[in-house]
Amino acid sequence: MIVAFLSIMILSPTQAARAADPSIVITGRNISDRKAALVACLSRKCPPDEDIDASLALAETLLVAGKYRDARFALLAALGRNRKEAAAYPIPVSDLYRANGRVAAHLGIDDDYYRSTWGIYNTLKKGLPNEKNRQYSAMMEVAEMMAETRGHDTAREYYRSIAHHAQSDGRPDIAALAELRMVLRHYPAYAREHAIRDIADSTDPNTRAAQLEARLALARMAYEKNDETKGDAIVGELSRFGIRKPILVYSPSWEVDRGMDSIPPLADNRNVLSMDGNGESGGQNDGGGRGRPASPTQMSPNGPHSFASYRMPLNVEDMWIDVGFRITEQGKVSDIQVLRSHGDIGWSKPLLASIAGRRYTPALPKLPGAYRTERYTYTSGLEPGTASHGQQHSPRARVEYFDLSDISAPD
Predict the structure, then answer these.
(1) C-alpha distances out from residue 229 to 128, 189, 224, 236, 285, Å
(2) How many angstroms separate the CA atoms of 218 and 34, rounded?
(3) How far lies 345's CA from each of 46, 354, 379, in Å?
(4) Tens digits of per-residue pLDDT, 188-247?
């Protein structure tokens, strides 16, 4: 289901990834099959959870095929039919909000990304008032969204609020994760290391997830200083956590190519959209492919993603790539290739160089996760335009990400 690779996994630090053979899938036929299945479900007046399952399956197939707007229409239609069922079906409805929010982020419709992410939390809080794990997971997703749509200060305060409530609820595990992510993502570099070490050196069995995340952060800091010996030593110490699938530790920072002749800033941008993107680590090590900028142009899968600084609205319609690569037993990347793409891909050259320089925890040859496929979308948030142009894309470009590793590479 779409949620399997679009959701942000909060309470488990291990990424969902498996070995994948980049085989060919005829997506057109799959789309027809998914549409037919949804029509059949609705014709027999199927229960809301079955409707949602069929709608998510269709949206997933459309999204993999690059049909972002069609995926959004399918999700909005499903929300229209099932939003009122939140009390009886809180988990399926929250999944629907999550998928809609992620597609919205890829399209740059940040207002809907904001509303949908809050929809996840509000649905779970009302429908499952005693399910604290799910509620805190949703709160972490809200914090991620806040960072992208409202900035560092707002996200930092929201993480602080999560930590406070978690301590009051007797959940030191959640409090430690919230505090760590607040430091990793929203503190200046000079103020991070001491706080990270405090969490990494903890022996509290209740904070093992935060300890792992902190140690990954320390390894990344070593790699950033070109101290491979220290970074490798820290990664080697992680065996006690029983990591079975590779986790991203470090990815070189990168910048969008601002000199692309093929993606000029357009004064007459008519991209008027009325509809509405862990990263890699889903917060494990502040990795992934989404986020707001730490500076106007710098992008790093280890932190907030960069935006190119253009003066005019961007033409970012339907620009994406699917990247496939293998993780070696040494945790390095090999056999990197662009499996599929749409639109101009000049923006992706620095990204590909960064992926090639990544470091992961080692891949075990006989276990899933050695081969990864990932989707990256070049986009920017929609903002009010002139009276004649309506909404148009912001000149602040960003790259959104989701994991394709659990799906055969599409044709």
Answers:
(1) 47, 21, 12, 10, 19
(2) 45
(3) 42, 15, 12
(4) 888 888 899 999 999 999 999 999 999 999 999 999 999 999 999 999 888 777 787 889
Mean pLDDT score, 160-185 = 95
Under a CB-based contact definition with an 8 Å cutoff, are residues 63 and 34 in contact? no
Q: Measuring CA to CA, how many Å separate 331 from each of 34, 51, 162, 326, 363? A: 37, 41, 33, 9, 6
Distance of CA 208 to the CA centre of its chain: 23
**Identity of the residue numbered 274:** S
**What's residue 243's pLDDT?**
81
* H/E stretch holding 7: none
CA distance 232 to 185: 23
> Which three-class secondary structure state does DSSP give residue 43?
helix
How far is Cα 324 from Cα 338, in angstroms, rounded to an integer?
Answer: 6
String of b and e for 208-234 (b: at least 16 CB within 10 Å)?
bbbbbbbbbbbbbbbbbeeeeeebbeb
The confidence band for 281, taking pLDDT boundaries of 50, 70 and 90, is: very low
What pTM was estimated for this model as a whole? 0.75
pLDDT above 90: residue 366: no
Least confident residue range of 148-152, 329-333, 402-406? 402-406
